[in-house]
Amino acid sequence: MSTIAESARIHPMAVVEDGAVIGEGVKIGPFCHVGPHVVLHENVELLSHAIVTGRTVIGRGTRIFPMAVIGGDPQSVHHGGEETTLSVGANCTMREGVTMNTGTADFGGQTIVGDNNLFLANSHVAHDCKVGNHVIMSNNVMLAGHVVIEDRVILGGGSAVHQFTRVGRQAFVGGLSAVSYDVIPYGMLNGNPGLLSGLNVVGMTRAGVDRAVIHRVRRAYKSIFEGTGSVRENAAAIRDEYADCEQAVQILDFIAADSDRALSSPTRGQKG
Asked: Which one from 124, 127, 146, 162 is the annotated catalytic residue?
C-alpha cells in the first residue's frame, strides 16, 4: 500500500504505484508516473508527464517539469538489475526532459544530488554521480558516470563531463566545453578540448570574496600553473605561504587529492 499524506493532491490521470510514499503538500499533475519505491517529501511538485521511478528519494520543495525521467536504471552495460538508488535534495528544479539515473552496484549503488540545484532542459546526471549544492546545469549538459560536481559550480549549455572527472567548488565551465580532466575550485574552463583559462573572478565576487583575497588566489594560481615544476610540485611548494587563505587551500587540497583523472591546465590537451 502507498502512504499518501492527506494534504497531497494527485491528479486522477496520474499513476502512483502501490508502495510509494507521498508527503504533505505534494502535487502530482496529469499523466505523471510515480514508481512503487519512490519517496516524495513535503511540497514536491510533479508537473504533467513527469516520471519518478526506481529507488528514488526526492527532497522537499523540489519541482520536476514535463517529460523528465528521474530514477531510471543506470545506462551501463555492467548493470544487472540490482536495486540501486538516487537521492535528490531539497528545493531543486528539474526542467523539461531532465534525466537522472540510479547508481551501479559495483561502485556503491548511489547517485546523490544535493540541495538548491537547477537542472535546465535535457540535462543529464548519470549513474554514481555526486552533485553538490547550488549547482546550475544549463541546457543539454551531460555528466557521465562517477562525476563529482562540487558546490556552486555552473556548467554552460551543451558541455560534457568525462566519467570519473571532478569539477571543484564554484568552477565555471563554458558552453559546449569538453571537460576531460579535473577542474580546480574557482577555475574557468572553456573549449574542446577544455583548457583552463584562469579563475572565476565574477563568481567569487558575487559570493562576497574580498578583492584582496581574490588577488592572492590569482597569485597562487599563477605559481601553480606557471612554476618551473609540475602542477602538484608547485602546489605543494606554496602550501605554507597560503595556509591562511581558505580559497587557495581549497585549490591546493583539490590538487593533492587522489583522482582517476589528470588536472585541467591552460595547456593540457592543446593541439599543436
From this structure: 127
127 included as an active-site residue? yes
pTM (predicted TM-score): 0.97
Say if residue 272's pLDDT is above 70.
no
* Ordered domains of the chain (ranges, CATH): 3-146 (2.160.10.10), 205-256 (no CATH)
Closest listed residue to residue 74, CA positions, set 114, 101, 46, 49: 101
- The interaxial angle of helices 211-226 and 246-256, nearest 10 deg, is 30
Of 141, 142, 181, 151, residue with least CA distance to 165: 181
Of the candidates 103, 114, 145, 203, the residue annotated as catalytic is: 145
- Which one of 128, 132, 146, 156 is the catalytic residue? 128
Burial (0-12, 13-18, 19+ Cβ within 10 Å), 20: buried
